[in-house]
Amino acid sequence: MLSPSPWPALRVTYFVTAPNQADLDARVESLLLEQTVELPRVALRDKFVLENIVGRLVSVEAMDADKHRVIIDFPIIATADDPAQFLNVLFGNSSIQEHVMLADFDLPSDWPGRKKTLPGPQFGIAGLRKIVGVPERALTSTALKPIGLSNERIAQLCGLFAQAGIDIIKDDHGLANHSFHPFIERVRACQKAVRDSNRASGRRSIYVPNLTGTPSVVLEQLKVAQDEGVGAVMIAPMLMGLPFLTEIVAQHAKVPIVGHPSFGGATRIAPELLYGKLFPLYGSDATIFANFGGRFAYSKETCGRIARAMTQPSIPGLTPTLPMPAGGIKYSQVADVLSFYGREVILLIGGGLYEAGDDQALRTRAGEFVRHVAEFKK
Amino acid sequence: MLSPSPWPALRVTYFVTAPNQADLDARVESLLLEQTVELPRVALRDKFVLENIVGRLVSVEAMDADKHRVIIDFPIIATADDPAQFLNVLFGNSSIQEHVMLADFDLPSDWPGRKKTLPGPQFGIAGLRKIVGVPERALTSTALKPIGLSNERIAQLCGLFAQAGIDIIKDDHGLANHSFHPFIERVRACQKAVRDSNRASGRRSIYVPNLTGTPSVVLEQLKVAQDEGVGAVMIAPMLMGLPFLTEIVAQHAKVPIVGHPSFGGATRIAPELLYGKLFPLYGSDATIFANFGGRFAYSKETCGRIARAMTQPSIPGLTPTLPMPAGGIKYSQVADVLSFYGREVILLIGGGLYEAGDDQALRTRAGEFVRHVAEFKK
User: Fold this and answer.
1) Could you tell me where in chain B the CATH 3.30.70.150 domains are found?
2) ipTM of predicted assembly, 2 dp
3) Does any CB of chain A come closer than 8 Å to the CB of residue B263?
4) Of A65-74, A95-104, A212-221, which range is least confident?
5) B8 touches chain A (CB under 8 A)
6) pLDDT at residue B20 above 70?
7) Does domain A124-375 have CATH number 3.20.20.110?
């Protein structure tokens, strides 16, 4: 083990599996080199490179028979203050090695380029709560779906949910600029529906359109959506590229960003890191992730860690953001889910509402969902 | 099983693990719904949606005790002719389900929006061969590395490799716009080095800079690089977002794109699909992937399938592209690797050259590598 790194260090934790000590040593040495110099140590002849670029091993600790917690310091200068190169240093080539999982990282406290490189979310918990006018209780959310409806029908559903009092009414992530529900007309129709409902109720429900496409298309959609006065927008950063998110936040977004996990994959990045830390660090104000007990496999413990990573960010100065557990939450589970997450949460229920039946039943259930959350005392 | 789909279908193959028939049935039903409507079947009340949006099961076939090949047709209209939504339909939410692996897909032959949505590579094998002036033999490639050298030193290495006769001299994927080797000066210095060498030798070696950053930064870098006359550029689509690649190719690139696998992860997408089919379909003219027997875990069979997917694309009308196996190919393995891939390949050796020793040894080994490939007869 070396002495502490002489430079501001990006401290990265990997879980490395290895059947024996020799393989473990080789895999650790490979990690030290792969993320920056990508050369065998014997081929490193430059003094500056050896002293200032190669990773330094902090610790190796056995977790079980063949799994080890490996902590490495990489010089923050290796990231070039570039949000794409930052990911490269974290988990570029090593992501292709099946024996490595990216578990966590800590930024150096003295990284002058941090705010320029990774500005983080602009709104976070406080900003979102202000927009929907809900200072304390958990927030409610549902999705407009499925793909294939007419814009008229989607806007009708949007109005129905707003009238029921749901705070955040978002497009399903599959709602793109389809011919049967083109983006611009959908945004206009849904905005009109929430405006009309809000005017009547005095509430501040928001409609959140899904932005999708290549970067120039997404930026056009963002402009349209903001001109129409939407309360937030949704983006799937793993589809669009995480670095793009920082550009949207720093240069274009005047409203909060809801991050969607699509294409996030079982990427060998710990979900509490990917959704709980990376999405917010790249600018997501509220992040959707797969809740325990639903259609996806995360445990209760993992979901707790994801939520805590968002509401109590370990990165100093990073704005706290809202967890948005989803993916098969049943209407009957609302109390349990609320007890688990507490009030700093957006409860997102889609199918669990739609299952209710016709519009009358849907309206009733959505209203009960809203009341349930409003009346919940932990 | 249903009758064949009544609409042009995106036919997707998943490998689904399930411990028993009931779980398998539930997981297949979930896949049919998750990728488009994302609602329980009971909540689907719209006739158009039921008939035209929900996936149709084509077949389920046991592969072994708990692994099954599941083939599903999704209506191509669900993709909205959007390259991001295309990925959503392929593997959006299901990517988060650990029991599902995306194995393959086939485009419908009658998809009018195909060329607009996914134009594919502009240059491919023929275009790249023309640029480097090598009609038949395998192409040679190496990387400029490590991060941390001066631009002067990087350009010196670039010149050395060009003089040794290497066709494609690329930046290491970790070379960003670092303060110690800023992008613009690096591109100018390396371009001068290859130009000078080519003028003396009559060869057409090319320098390939690595583009990295947020979309607007990458487009600026592309412009600089093209203005300086580079032969191709390198991009890591999983870092930048695959949809961005299509925009680069369709609207900005006048040179071939080399796709780098960084952040590609063990994403539960079969590597022959991710690198062999998706990267080219999104516009990569040559794609780097982890060769067998090196620092990464792909088998010889997988690498063969990756290479064949590129050189003999199964998608009608898609330009054939060049496989670029890499990642720990030893100098001594060149003959074996050549025998395996044949001549439609770019052999990329980095560390295996740099290990040789000082510049004299490096020049000698690079020259031998070039001769070896030139003289190879299958």
Assistant:
1) 9-117
2) 0.90
3) yes
4) A95-104
5) no
6) yes
7) yes
